[in-house]
Amino acid sequence: MAGANEAVQATNDDASLCKRCAVQLGYWDDPYISLFVPKYERKTPEINRGYYARTKGVGMFIDQFMEKVGENCQIVNLGSGFDTLYWRLKDSGRNIVNFVELDFPNVTSRKCYFIKRNKILLDKIHAEDGEVRLSSTDLHAANYHIVGVDLRNIVEVETKLVEAEIKFDLPTLFIAECVLIYIETIQVQRLLTWLAKTFKSSFFINYEQVNMGDKFGDVMLQNLRARGCLLASVDASKSLDTQKDRFLQSGWDGAKAWDMVQIYGMLPAADRQRIERIEFLDEQELLVQLFQHYCIVVGWKGDTFKDIDIT
Ligand SMILES: C[S@@+](CC[C@H](N)C(=O)[O-])C[C@H]1O[C@@H](n2cnc3c(N)ncnc32)[C@H](O)[C@@H]1O
């Protein structure tokens, strides 16, 4: 089991390297990712475009969530890895009530280490009133918290969220990018049920694999298995419907889902044209296949977020 956990944790290194590469090539701006990932490794144009669509697609829903509630909200990033959203939000002038990141202690301890020794990262956290409290795996500042926890352990998740000063009655955005698929179906179900029950008004953005029942999906599964990584809840990634059902069966009021072909098509045309000029794409077909096998699913609790959409 320890081996399987390590393989899952290592997926963060891969995701971070991919983001770092795409940022360096100019797909989007992120002055912070290189502070967590000093190494530059060239990725294929398909991967870079995939990460662009993912970052912009998720960003589009974050913007809509914030248009609804303003800054009086909190964001909880589940399996956050080395994600830099907290710093990027700050730079965009949005100062929300609370931002909490959860991941395995092995991952959060590395993130805490990077933050501790980097003035640029630390200053943005310090800019809030109050001090920064750090342990080897957790960090607590005025409106930013990182906590080490196994998302399969709901009791521990609750304890850690309370330590992170989360308020269960404040509008809350949950983000999970390529995380739930690594967790067994029953445990995802328990987590989603607990979140739906505990938070009064919330919106969930889940980015991960879809259409995994076909040949392309099989190859993806084999590649991950070869790296020791089981996609433990791949059954929820069969189709957009199974993705939505997971929310509907866990007490969420509604859910919508789109594959990344649809999401990419909804991004501003000028932005797409700009990034399509960055690198020559040899095989358009491969990119389309890749986009067909990832999706964004949103779920909501309460009426505030039900009209959030891709139009
Ligand atoms: C593919 S990475 C994605 C990281 C980040 N969300 C991103 O998009 O860059 C998956 C992350 O989920 C975390 N994760 C998976 N299962 C988890 C669990 N049971 N508890 C806590 N974190 C988990 C891993 O440690 C890893 O950091």
Automatic annotation (TrEMBL):
Specify which residues bind S-adenosyl-L-methionine according to the UniProt entry for this protein.
Answer: R54, G79, D150, L151, E177
Q: Pfam families in the record, alphabetically?
A: LCM (PF04072)
| Transmembrane residue ranges | none
Q: Where would one find the signal peptide in this protein?
A: none
Q: What InterPro entries does the database record attribute to this sequence?
A: LCMT1, Ppm1/Ppm2/Tcmp, SAM-dependent_MTases_sf
Arranged from A to Z, the UniProt key words for this protein are: Methyltransferase, S-adenosyl-L-methionine, Transferase
Query: Which GO CC terms are listed, alphabetically?
Result: cytosol
Could you say which protein family the record assigns here?
Belongs to the methyltransferase superfamily. LCMT family.
What the entry lists under Gene3D superfamilies is as follows: Vaccinia Virus protein VP39
Lineage: superkingdom: Eukaryota
| GO terms for biological process, alphabetical | methylation; regulation of signal transduction
**What catalytic reaction does the record list?**
[phosphatase 2A protein]-C-terminal L-leucine + S-adenosyl-L-methionine = [phosphatase 2A protein]-C-terminal L-leucine methyl ester + S-adenosyl-L-homocysteine
Q: What is its EC number?
A: 2.1.1.233
A GO MF label: protein C-terminal leucine carboxyl O-methyltransferase activity
Q: What is this protein called?
A: Leucine carboxyl methyltransferase 1
Q: Which organism is it from?
A: Gryllus longicercus
Q: What's the stated role of this polypeptide?
A: Methylates the carboxyl group of the C-terminal leucine residue of protein phosphatase 2A catalytic subunits to form alpha-leucine ester residues.
Instruction: Please name the top-level EC class of this enzyme.
Output: transferase
